């Protein structure tokens, strides 16, 4: 345990010092992928630990991203003017639900609260009637589809297909300034470390134990006198909040949030990061996110046609051969040879 | 065209979309009900069927090629389904969520393969001449309202397939085995049913029907590498609303969902109809969490 702590500490120090030795382009990628890893942590919590597969985390990611982007659009608009895309769409008055986002405090609060509320509501409505996990996966995917098509269609209010972009001034700092980028990197890293530590504590608590028990035998949990519903709703809300934070950070990092970033495909891609890293391990979620995304950057710049084949194969191979991902493989090396055959985590009775 | 004929036309479109959804959802519902398997590559069976029909019509002309295309689409996707079941799905038995992810991988590979072979732009399948016209209902209140023959053909095709499946399930030995495995897998196995073979047959029959649906779909819309993904989410919603492995439930749910979105599109927009549909499905699950038609069982651990 102490050795593990030392290892994590070392990794953190290396990451904090990364701007000293990582070239600028790779550093900007690293920053973005670390921000994405925050959403992956949430998926690891709900899927790896609690057995709820969500194919719609992109929606909560988007709520966080749009919340911060709406504030920045308003802050960057000329005094007394509407944001540019609203003028192009012929709007002459700010929609009332945009009004609160003038305040940065409201925007920050919205990034944290709205995705959590939305996730909690969805989980409550679906799990209240003990709908199975497979149904839940399908409903979350339908949610990702509906959300993306809806945002695209509401061009005057959401920026449509192009999303919200064109805000260079972030709370008085220029987004393109290298110093802002550097600060953003450290903020991202700090948030990730904080989220990681918080989830570690959560998983080691009784709450985490109950989530595991729900995954492995929900009815037995009921027979022991617990109602699984609040645990599932809370865990899913926590994952929603993490996805929202991740969305806000990525929006700041890229300077844009658009439907192409949160529809059906991006949402399920988040699941593959966690699957590759190791679904029931927090560090696996982070490693998987970095591995898959750096891999994507490399493959899609060298052989753009191949990327979908690679992801497709990764899905198939990971699920059939290494259900516990990279972390599972690493663990099996430390075990004696006869125990190396990997077993899938017990997800069903 | 007046208001009422417009609405009627939209309703009719809803029914014809519903019949495609029905064909796509039949295989999903059967294999989900039987094996608890969610096949995310099912939409790509639609796509594959569409491309097979396209290949057939370009090779044999649109007259005979049309029929050859329907057969080819069915046989080709049935064989592919069998291959998929043997190589992948069988190995993941009892892990529904993992099957979902692995078959999603298959669907990505198939989409990219289609893109590499046929290009990203959609290809058209021209219907034979006798399907080119439309049935006009002149001289009544419905003057000006014309039904395209292609859409009638699709509805008839769906009805035939549904009837065939109903006969197969209720009147044949195979159907008896399927129902037995569906009701109680362990008991059916103990009594000598070869459940693995039943799984294989049902699964590949399901993909074959989806392929047929794809060939039919190719008549009204261009076939693109992603045509499957735009239908599959709705097909899944049909399965959820219909209940596991029930033909009646799937039929009712397909019509309900097809007509619901068509009607919602009259009053709102296509995208708002999507949102409304999802809200309606979630609301429906509050009342009937196991779908329209549910199987009575005393078993506790059921999905």
Q: What is the fold's blueprint, element by element?
A:
The complex is a heterodimer of chains A (349) and B (303).
Chain A: H1 2-16, H2 18-21, H3 24-49, H4 57-76, H5 84-88, H6 104-127, H7 133-153, H8 155-158, E1 164-165, E2 169-170, E3 173-174, H9 178-204, H10 206-223, H11 228-254, E4 256-257, H12 264-277, H13 282-302, H14 307-321, H15 325-333
Antiparallel strand pairs in A: 1-4, 2-3
Chain B: H1 3-35, H2 42-60, H3 64-87, H4 96-118, E1 134-136, E2 146-148, H5 149-171, H6 173-183, H7 185-190, H8 195-220, H9 227-242, H10 247-267, H11 270-287
Antiparallel strand pairs in B: 1-2
Number of strands of chain A: 4
Estimated structural class of chain A: mainly alpha
User: What does the radius of gyration of chain B come to?
Assistant: 19 Å
Largest sheet of chain A: 2 strands, antiparallel
End-to-end separation of chain B? 48 Å
Got a strand count of chain B? 2
Cα gyration radius of chain A (Å): 21 Å
Q: Which outline of chain A best applies?
A: globular
Describe the sheet with the most strands of chain B.
2 strands, antiparallel
Strand content of chain B: under 5%
User: Mean pLDDT of chain B, as a whole number?
Assistant: 87
Strand order in the largest sheet of chain A? 1-4
Greatest interface and its participating residue counts? A-B, 50 and 45 residues
Helix proportion of chain A:
over 70%
Instruction: Output the number of helix runs of chain B.
Output: 11
